[in-house]
Amino acid sequence: MSGNDYINSLIMGEVSIPSIIILNTSNEQYFLPAEPVEDLQQMLQFFSSVLDGSAPAYGGDGIFQRIKRVAYDARSTIMSVFRSSPLLGCFLFGLPLGVISLMCYGICTAESDDGTEDLELMKAEEEEEEERLTERTEEEEEQTDRTAEEELTESKSPAEKKLD
User: Taking the domains of the chain in order of start, what are their residue ranges?
Assistant: First the structure.
C-alpha cells in the first residue's frame, strides 16, 4: 500500500495527506482532530484531549463495526476490479446478474397451472371408488342374505323341508 491507502482502509474512508490520526491498536479505535491541525498548540491540545478521553473515538471491534468493515471491504474490492479492468468487472458481475434476472423473469411470467385438470381427475377417481364400494356393499348384502337362507334351510328338519 502506498501513501494513505493503509489509513483509508483502516478508517473506511478518505483522508487527505498530511493528516494526524491517533490509533489505539488494542481495540482498533482511532481519533481524528475536529479541525485541521495548523500549529503545535493545536496538536498538543488534540493529544491531551485524546489522553483525557474527551476526543470522540471512531472505529472499534464491535459487531456493528465488523459488519461495516465487511461491507466496506466488498465495496472496495469491487471498485478496484472496475478501476483496473472495467471489461472484466462487467463480465464478472454482469453475467451472473443477467442469468439471475432471466431466471426471475421466467419464474414471474410463467403460465400458472391452476390444477383444474388434476382436480377433475381426482373427482372422477373418487366417484369411481364410491361406485365400486357401493357395488361391493350390495354384493356382500346379497351374499349374506343367501348364506342366511342356506343356513336356515340346513337347520330345518327333513319334515319341515318337505312342507316348504
Answer: 5-95, 125-155
